[in-house]
Amino acid sequence: MSSTLSPEAESPYRRFVRDPNAEYERKGLGRPYAVPMTMVDRDGSILYEKPSFSLLYSIIDENDTEALRQYLAIAPWAVSIEPIFSNELWAVPMDDPYAEYYASDGVIEEDYFLYAAQWGGRGVLQMLLDHCAKDRNPAPPIRFKLERYQLLNEAARYGHVGTVQFLLDNQPLYASIHDRDDSGYTALASAASIYELRWCNFKDGEGPSDARNEAVMNLLLDRGACASDVVIPTYEDKKIRHTVLTFAVEWAGSQLIKRLIDGGADVHAKVTIGPWNLTFWNQRDSTFEVSALYFACTCANFQAVKTLIDCRGAGVDIKGMLRERDSRGSLPLHWATQNDLPTESDAFLISTAREIAENITKVITLLLDLDPTTINTQDNDGNTPLHYATRSLSRHNKLYTPIFQLLCTRGADASIRNNEGQTPLHTLFRLNDEDSYSFPPKVPSTQLLYLL
């Protein structure tokens, strides 16, 4: 994103050219709306800031350092790391009838720095920070503990390599590679946790991505980040719910995963997950102690599954690793077969759904090639991998049919009953549980019925 805008380009600030008080003044009613500041656009138009400071946010969003420089010269008070009291800044009359609309508690709620770290760019963030640090000699470290975020973590999570580089180069003034945010994340864990944002819609070329976040993670590792880092619990039970590795295996390629393992990340380390992480159709209120392999299987990351198995360590038997059970008696194969595909309402192309389906097939094939005897293994509830596949929310998607074909070809027994006396054919027709989203019943395809 460019840090300046071409004079010939249409101004992105056109919505700020209207004076909110113009009509009132024409009627002799004065100026009832407070205008924090005005500035001149490149074409000579006057821009009127709103009580929400949305003009400033727009300038940050454009990474427009030229406009930000003018803004700060006119209204240097608008950006501060200290609380800003609105009626002191704007000279708002105490009886202003609109005061509650834009400052209900008298303090401006602003997160310009957070917004710049996530959506702006290195140029505007540097200018904002320099603006706050210029009158401090010596300048103490700038942190945002009251707002409960770390700039480096946010820039890392959103894949801004240049911004991360700038913050690392300005340690400890603006950041520290070992600082944790209010959720217990370091910058490396934040960069690895992008799978959580997979359903978000971002502008083209913006937001986290596999390539950008991998570059950020490599940069952080180059600068001394700990590959074996965990997310420190901030809740009462104090159980570890993620490591950098368990985050990374959800999406990363083999090269980065191997680098983490070579750097000390434990392939077999257990973390606690539960309803807040995953939704299982048969045990929605359960928690599980699982390793990174389960996450890789659940996210159908074939390269991660293969790398974890290859890097299992000397003396660790492959079959022992694949037969390790979670607290409900499930194997990694069970987790792999219950994957869901993105629906038409999700922000995915059909090609992406097809790729995920192919990856699910590849993961299942790998697991069965290494230990074919697990094909009909039952968990504590008597469910086989085929039971799990027939309960996937994607079971009626034609892209899921090859997964059923693979399981049946490799020896899945459709006559096995679980503890409720149900075969996979029963679970195929079973309606979604009452706390799931309500969908109209669907009839399985003839091809699928023939397989079972």
UniProtKB/TrEMBL annotation:
Gene3D superfamilies: Ankyrin repeat-containing domain. It comes from the Eukaryota. Keywords: ANK repeat, Repeat. Pfam families: Ank. InterPro entries: Ankyrin_rpt, Ankyrin_rpt-contain_sf. ANK repeats lie at residues 381-419. This is Ankyrin. It comes from Fusarium beomiforme. The lineage of its organism: Eukaryota, Fungi, Dikarya, Ascomycota, Pezizomycotina.
